[in-house]
Design goal:
Elements: E1 3-12, E2 15-25, E3 28-34, E4 49-52, E5 57-60, E6 62-67, E7 69-70, E8 73-74, H1 79-91, E9 94-101, H2 106-122, E10 126-131, H3 154-164, E11 168-173, H4 180-189, E12 193-196, H5 203-211, E13 216-217, H6 233-239, E14 245-249, H7 257-266, E15 271-274, E16 286-290, E17 293-298, E18 301-304, H8 318-327, H9 332-337, H10 341-346, E19 363-366, E20 372-377, E21 380-381
Parallel strand pairs: 1-4, 1-5, 6-9, 9-10, 10-11, 11-12, 12-13, 13-14, 14-15
Antiparallel strand pairs: 1-2, 2-3, 5-19, 7-8, 16-17, 17-18, 19-20, 20-21
Bound molecules: zinc ion (ZN).
Zinc ion binds at residues 132, 142, 198, 219, 223.
EC number: 3.5.1.25
GO molecular function: N-acetylglucosamine-6-phosphate deacetylase activity
Family: Belongs to the metallo-dependent hydrolases superfamily. NagA family.
Length: 383
């Protein structure tokens, strides 16, 4: 199918273009231009669907490097739950997703990795799996079950890598764990993006992890030491290093909007806006689970039922992250880049994340106030 969108305000990593048009074909963007030039271009087939997007933003499809579920479904619960949860995020503009898993016993993780590998093999919108657990510091476990945390032994690494069938694209590691620095090299050699996270590492250890091949910081500021002027910590190490991209959860709760804006200013082009969404994203307040742990969601904020409540993932969708980020004063071009071109670069997917010929026809149409009205992935309508 062929779609022509015209009259839009194009917004992507290359900037804003008014009165923009774009043509899709065979799942990719085949031509772009401005004004009415599409009418005389000779490239628009007679049966193309014509979409008048006057007054709307047109952005690339959003890419979420980190989500655990949505619509009442957890990605830890197998193939049907993954498909149902993804449908919620797709309606909010997320066209490509990494499926994140919380800490679980190795045989449970292996089964999940196998299920994700099968889904990814027949759904190119699923980019692969992310092992957020189990290689996390117990002192920074967040909402991961402490009983299921472990150290990256050769045996467990082999088991998980085999189960993932080459579809493990991301793994979070606390570099202070025994064997962690070696494991960073092993996972990176296997083609996974290694992220530092759920860690008590200071500046020097974080830098060592980056030198060993880690290129991402999992939900920067959350589940790690913050920036103190005498203890600069892992966030400073990441901001300071042009090789490193920082995930941020822009729900206004996990990171204060002022700090969000500061991070964008300090690391231009190196922020990836992720949801870290759990099952309650796109679903009502109530009682849920994150892995094995019960979670209460009130006013859209998910917490563990601890004495001192721990934030347990978010209920965020990426369109809401865009609105929060723009409201924090970040330039819309930088905000959209953090949802599109930057995560595409992290995953080494040069075919994703821009509105230009040759790129995948992943498109989001939004109102002037960034509410999603239409979504296409690989040229097909998702909403
Ligand atoms: Zn986490």
């Amino acid at each position: 199918m062929t779609v022509l969108v015209h009259g839009a305000r194009k917004l992507d990593a290359d900037g804003v273009v008014d009165d923009f048009w774009l043509l899709t074909g065979d799942g990719t963007i085949t031509a772009t231009g401005t004004g009415d030039s599409w009418r005389a271009s000779g490239v628009v087939p007679a049966d193309a669907e014509i979409v008048d997007a006057t007054g709307d933003w047109l952005t690339p499809g959003f890419i979420d490097l980190h989500a655990h579920g949505g619509g009442g479904h957890s990605f830890d619960d197998g193939a049907d739950a993954i498909r149902a949860g993804l449908a919620v995020h797709r309606a909010h503009g997320t066209t490509r997703s990494v499926i994140s898993l919380v800490a679980n016993p190795p045989h449970v993780l292996a089964a999940s990795l196998d299920a994700i590998a099968r889904i990814a093999a027949d759904d190119p919108l699923v980019l692969g799996s992310h092992l957020e657990g189990p290689f996390l510091a117990p002192s920074r476990k967040g909402a991961h079950d402490p009983d299921f945390l472990g150290v990256p032994t050769h045996h467990v690494l082999k088991q998980l890598l085999e189960a993932s069938e080459g579809r493990l694209v991301q793994v979070t590691i606390a570099p202070e764990l025994p064997g962690a620095l070696e494991a960073i090299g092993t996972f990176a050699s296997a083609g996974a993006v290694v992220a530092v996270g759920h860690t008590d590492a200071g500046l020097d250890l974080a830098r060592e992890a980056f030198d060993r091949g880690a290129t991402l910081l999992t939900h920067a500021f959350n589940a790690m030491p913050g920036i103190h002027h005498r203890e600069p910590g892992p966030v400073t190490a990441a901001l300071d290093d042009p090789r490193i991209t920082l995930e941020l959860i822009a729900d206004g709760v996990h990171v204060h909007p002022a700090v969000l804006a500061l991070a964008f200013a300090a690391a231009p082009g190196r922020i990836a806006l992720v949801t870290d969404a759990m099952a309650a994203a796109g679903a009502p307040d109530g009682e849920y689970h994150l892995g094995s742990l019960p979670v209460t969601v009130r006013d859209g904020v998910a917490t563990l039922a601890d004495a001192a409540p721990t934030i347990a993932g978010s209920t965020l969708t990426q369109d809401a992250a865009l609105r929060t980020t723009v409201a924090a004063g970040v330039d819309p071009v930088a905000a959209v880049t953090a949802l599109t071109a930057t995560p595409a670069r992290v995953l080494d997917r040069p075919d994703l994340g821009r509105l230009a010929p040759g790129y995948a026809a992943d498109l989001v149409l939004l109102t002037a106030t960034f509410d999603v009205t239409h979504v296409w992935a690989a040229g097909r309508p998702l909403r």
